[in-house]
């Protein structure tokens, strides 16, 4: 396992044919400083001790692994949940946001800039900024602002400036475009804290490394509970940070099948889904190479998902590589199946999941029905408080 993480990415930030950093020279110089600082600061005893203290006393880690007995009985299998919804702020995002903000503090930065789709990254970064006494600016598409109103309110309460993005499809891709533009205006005193394992090097590596805590905990907890490792590990994939977090602990286990669940949305027609690896091909977006949903000119295609955190036309470069290596199987779940899982987990287990996480729960249900003897570990990456008003308005009570 150690050899894998030393090999990927390489010194240029490449994961096989993917990744890298393709950005303007002025910005590259700032990225190089961040990369150098990360390699030196993140290995220091002081940084690690402070981050561990934050995780334990502020975030409430470790989060538990829970056996979803009623849901399992219903499906005929054994479904376990890694409860990242119990992480402070309600999702896995705080794992890397506290790490990025701590790095920013060590670098002497004054301001954190980021994009958000579902709002969980925005809330987590606003929380980190408040904790460290830094300014915070969050760019968010107007469509997502309307869908995820509770998270917008949280960000503002925490002191963040929320910048509405009104061009294009007004969702996650445009929010990234807008945040990058704001960062370019002042890369010296601010830092761009990207919300997933995407973007130019070193961000896919940094976010993965900060999210590895999920996999480290889950592997130990599951083994303690059952005396074995899971047969299947399932996580939703938009950019792919929660998935890389939990997959990282099992990449060397040939017996453990890893499933990344992409959003099929309304169906296979272009613009109706965000199933990047399923329908995309290698391309470039936001300064890095990855599988990309794109048109004939290589421009990113419009995308859609009921889950605002998954509607991104690209995907992490490491996921792109893991797909080509056959280490992870990338599958898909549509809106209706996702909403069914959202309600079923709520009613059967008393856990309201984020719509993003409900994609993974839905696929775990499929696996359980196919083979009741297999044990399935789902990364329940976030809670659904942010989604309840939207779901009720669109689907009503089921």
Note down, in words, how this protein is organized:
With about 400 residues, the chain is of the alpha/beta class. It folds into two domains: about 1-55 and about 90-205, 3-Layer(aba) Sandwich (Rossmann fold); about 60-90 and about 210-395, Rossmann fold. The chain has helices spanning about 1-5, 25-40, 45-60, 70-75, 95-105, 120-130, 140-145, 150-155, 170-185, 205-225, 240-245, 275-280, 315-325, 335-350, 355-370, 390-395; strands spanning about 15, 20, 65, 80-85, 110-115, 135-140, 160-165, 190, 230-235, 255-265, 280-285, 290, 330-335, 375-380. A six-stranded mixed beta sheet has the order 3-4-14-9-10-13, sandwiched between helices. α5 (about 95-105) crosses α10 (about 205-225). The radius of gyration is 19 Å and the shape is globular. The termini are far apart.
The geometry reads as globular
> Based on the structure given, which CATH architecture of the largest domain is correct?
3-Layer(aba) Sandwich
Structural class: alpha/beta
Widest sheet: strand ordering: 3-4-14-9-10-13
Unreliable segments (pLDDT under 50, ≥5 consecutive)? none
List keywords for this structure.
6-stranded mixed sheet, 14 strands, 18% strand, 4-stranded parallel sheet, 398 residues, Rossmann fold, 2 domains, alpha/beta
Give the gist of this structure:
The chain is built from 16 helices and 14 strands. The chain is of the alpha/beta class.
Topology:
Layout: H1 2-7, E1 14-15, E2 18-19, H2 25-41, H3 45-59, E3 65-67, H4 69-75, E4 78-83, H5 94-107, E5 111-116, H6 120-132, E6 135-141, H7 142-147, H8 149-157, E7 161-165, H9 172-185, E8 190-192, H10 203-226, E9 232-236, H11 241-247, E10 257-265, H12 276-279, E11 281-285, E12 288-292, H13 317-325, E13 329-334, H14 335-349, H15 355-370, E14 375-380, H16 388-395
Parallel strand pairs: 4-14, 5-6, 5-8, 6-7, 9-10, 9-14, 10-13
Antiparallel strand pairs: 1-2, 3-4, 11-12
Helix pairs in contact: 3-5, 5-6, 5-10, 6-8, 10-11, 14-15
């Amino acid at each position: 396992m150690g050899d894998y993480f030393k090999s990927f990415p390489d010194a240029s930030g490449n994961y096989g044919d993917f990744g890298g950093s393709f950005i303007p020279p002025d910005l590259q110089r700032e990225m190089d400083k961040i990369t150098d600082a990360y390699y030196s600061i993140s290995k220091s005893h002081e940084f690690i001790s402070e981050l561990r203290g934050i995780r334990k006393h502020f975030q409430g880690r470790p989060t538990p692994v829970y056996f979803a007995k009623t849901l399992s009985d219903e499906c005929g299998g054994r479904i376990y949940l890694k409860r990242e919804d119990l992480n402070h702020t309600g999702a896995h995002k705080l794992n890397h946001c506290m790490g990025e903000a701590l790095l920013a503090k060590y670098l002497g930065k004054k301001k954190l800039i980021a994009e958000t789709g579902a709002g969980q990254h925005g809330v987590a970064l606003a929380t980190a900024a408040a904790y460290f006494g830094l300014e915070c600016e969050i760019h968010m598409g107007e469509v997502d602002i309307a869908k995820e109103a509770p998270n917008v309110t949280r960000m503002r309460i925490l002191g963040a400036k929320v910048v509405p993005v009104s061009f294009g499809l007004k969702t996650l891709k445009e929010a990234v475009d807008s945040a990058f533009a704001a960062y370019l205006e002042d890369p010296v005193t601010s830092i761009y804290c990207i919300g997933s394992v995407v973007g130019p090097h070193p961000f896919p590596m940094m976010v993965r490394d900060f999210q590895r805590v999920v996999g480290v905990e889950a592997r130990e907890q599951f083994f303690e509970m059952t005396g074995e490792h899971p047969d299947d590990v399932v996580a939703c994939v938009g950019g792919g940070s929660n998935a890389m977090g939990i997959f990282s602990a099992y990449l060397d286990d040939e017996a453990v099948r890893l499933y990344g669940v992409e959003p099929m949305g309304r169906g296979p027609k272009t613009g109706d889904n965000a199933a990047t690896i399923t329908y995309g091909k290698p391309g470039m977006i936001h300064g890095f190479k990855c599988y990309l949903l794109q048109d004939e000119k290589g421009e990113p295609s419009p995308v859609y998902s009921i889950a605002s955190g998954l509607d991104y036309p690209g995907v992490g470069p490491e996921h792109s590589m893991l797909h080509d290596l056959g280490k992870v199987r990338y599958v898909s779940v549509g809106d209706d199946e996702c909403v069914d899982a959202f309600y079923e987990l709520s009613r059967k287990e008393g856990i309201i999941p984020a719509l993003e996480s409900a994609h993974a729960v839905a696929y775990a249900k499929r696996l359980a029905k196919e083979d009741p003897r297999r044990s399935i570990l789902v990364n329940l990456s976030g809670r659904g408080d942010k989604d309840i008003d939207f779901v009720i308005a669109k689907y009503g009570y089921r």
